[in-house]
From TrEMBL:
One of its GO terms (cellular component) is membrane. Residues 452-561 form the STAS domain. GO terms for biological process: transmembrane transport. PANTHER family: SULFATE TRANSPORTER (PTHR11814). This is SulP family sulfate permease. Gene3D superfamilies: STAS domain. Signal peptide: none annotated. Keywords: Membrane, Transmembrane, Transmembrane helix. It is found in: Membrane. SUPFAM superfamilies: SpoIIaa-like. It comes from Chelatococcus asaccharovorans.
């Protein structure tokens, strides 16, 4: 029997890791067996992916494994999702590579630590909900853009090209340099990478439960070694892989470096928050559970600080590995913890085998990841749905691939916000005498707007305007313009705000200016039906007695208006 929790319990449980919740429920040996199988399955998938992401990010493959071990362990142990699997993610490849180029590896580690601290702060302040407000076209746009950039960065290893100089970071110069080096293609590398892609795709269709990535990597390494193929491997490019975790250390820190890496740290924090919460939402959808977003962000922050201290990359929740974890039968965060333990054991006892892995097959693994990241069907669907959302999508996509990820997100969010405000403003309308005037009609010439009419019973003395929709800054000027179009002013104007759910100071000030115009033409103003919070905002901006009078509803407002203009009013019946 479960006792009802106290009112304070929900607040305190916001930051309780799901691991603690699971242990309180009662953790059995049967659940441990299921989590062990799921953890091993995910580790098999994460092994080649972690190395491939690290190499594509411009660093050595062991850094990816360190990230999956340290970051993955902490995300599962402290996170707010039962099934989240943490580690290096493909979405960060571009950002990590650019940060390393700009600030060096120590600068990147400092940026990762700062990003972790930002995530801890965001979670502690319970701001995780706001990250979910990133418009869907923005997430699709930058994810698709990242997929294109990552794929372009893998062409060199996919084809075994030899470039005359360093590979450019920007997309267009990169493609130009690769095109100029196409005559240096290595047939063995090209055949191996194409064969690996075909094997991965084929196994996914025929045997979806088999670890296609690992099978492709193992077979490619065996073929390269046994046949003596002239293909670059991890060993030939990076040398021996350490057979354990490095000692933790702080990167060099100075005020100048902190200021320099701050934009990159903020971009990492934003992308990390989006990626991890999106992954947690996917897990919730698959299992019917609910994650704790702010607890998840705090765990992500701690994981990034710890991973950076051990020299790792950015750690976040990963959608593909989390989905694999669920399909493999995971029941709790223990599976994610065991996935990190299995990776550590592999690094401890089989690090020497990593040197035989061809870079071409890791490039093939990332090519498949890019294909899955691109969200092609969703991309096309958004293009067909709405012109406004299509513009947000394309702007985010193009800025991401032609400039950088952070700017792409910023442009997309700003455009998405303006699109939202435009749609909200379109919901605002003003009705009078049976005619409805949309707020957007402020841009229409006065001659094309129907003049307001009066109720015959009022003899043209009182005009009632009903404003509907959110009265915010996006609709402020248009509302004011509509109200100021009164041709022949009556003796009194009633403003019915009963259908206004909210108001802000900008709209209230605009309404105050309209009221001043009405009063300057000799008309009294009565406001009715305003909610307490709306009335509070209006009064703060000067829409208060004696400038206006307030009434609870239209009937009482009409009675009050009659009294103000000297029209006889029948006494209210005494109950």
């Amino acid at each position: 029997m479960t006792l009802p929790s106290s009112p304070a319990a929900p607040q305190s449980s916001l930051f309780t890791p799901k691991l603690v919740t699971v242990l309180r429920e009662g953790y059995t040996l049967a659940r441990f067996r299921a989590d062990a199988v799921a953890g091993l399955t995910v580790a098999v998938v994460a092994l080649p992916l972690s190395m491939a992401i690290a190499i594509a990010s411009g660093t050595s493959p062991d850094r990816g494994l360190v990230t999956a071990i340290i970051g993955g362990f902490i995300i599962s142990a402290l996170g707010g999702s039962r099934f989240q699997i943490g580690g290096p993610a493909g979405a960060f490849i571009v950002l990590v590579a650019a940060t390393i180029v700009r600030h060096g590896y120590d600068g990147f580690l400092l940026a990762t630590i700062m990003a972790g601290l930002v995530l801890i702060l965001v979670g502690a302040l319970r701001l995780g909900t706001y990250i979910k407000f990133i418009p869907h076209p923005v997430t699709v746009g930058f994810t698709s853009g990242i997929a294109i950039i990552i794929f372009a960065s893998q062409i060199r290893d996919l084809l075994g090209l030899t470039l005359a100089g360093p590979e450019p970071a920007a997309l267009i110069p990169k493609l130009e340099a690769l095109g100029q080096s196409i005559n240096t293609i290595n047939p063995a590398a090209a055949i191996l990478s194409v064969s690996a892609i075909a094997l991965i795709v084929g196994l996914r269709r025929i045997r979806p439960n088999w670890p296609g990535f690992l099978i492709a990597v193992v077979l490619a390494a065996a073929a390269t070694t046994l046949l003596g193929l002239p293909i670059e491997t991890i060993g030939t490019r990076f040398g021996a892989i350490p057979d354990g975790l490095p000692a933790p250390r702080l990167p060099d820190i100075s005020l100048d470096t902190v200021i320099a890496v701050m934009p990159d740290a903020l971009a990492m924090a934003l992308l990390g928050g989006i990626e991890s919460l999106l992954s947690a939402v996917v897990a919730d959808t698959m299992t019917g559970r609910r994650h704790r977003s702010n607890c998840e962000l705090v765990a992500q922050g701690i994981a990034n600080v710890a991973a950076a201290l051990f020299g790792g990359l950015v750690a976040t929740g990963t959608i593909a590995r989390t989905a694999t974890n669920i399909r493999a039968g995971a029941t709790s965060p223990v599976s994610g913890i065991l996935h990190s333990v299995f990776l550590f054991l592999f690094l401890l006892f089989a690090a020497s085998l990593i040197a035989y892995v061809p870079l071409a097959v890791l490039a093939a693994v990332l090519a498949v990841v890019c294909w899955n990241m691109a969200e092609r069907h969703v991309f096309v669907q958004i293009l067909r749905q709405s012109r406004g959302e299509a513009l947000v999508l394309l702007a985010t996509f193009l800025v991401t691939i032609l400039h950088d990820l952070a700017m792409g997100i910023a442009v997309g969010v700003v455009m998405g916000s303006f699109l939202f405000m435009h749609r909200m403003a379109d919901l605002v309308s003003v009705s009078t005498g049976g005619a409805s005037i949309a707020a957007g009609s402020a841009d229409v010439p006065d001659s094309e707007v129907e003049a307001p009419t009066y109720s015959a019973s009022e003899n043209g003395d009182i005009l009632v305007y009903q404003i509907s929709g959110p009265l915010f800054f996006g609709a402020a000027s248009t509302i004011g313009a509509v109200l100021e179009r009164i041709g022949v002013f009556p003796k009194a104007v009633v403003l019915d705000l009963s259908r206004v759910p909210l108001a802000d100071s900008t709209a209230a000030l605009s309404l105050k200016l309209a009221v001043d115009t009405i009063r300057s033409n000799g008309a009294a103003v009565v406001v009715c039906g305003a909610r307490p919070e709306v009335r509070h905002i209006l009064k703060q901006e000067g829409v208060k007695p004696p400038i206006v009078s307030y009434a609870s509803d239209v009937d009482r407002a009409r009675t009050l208006a009659r009294r103000k203009i000297g029209v006889p009013v029948a006494p209210e019946p005494v109950s």
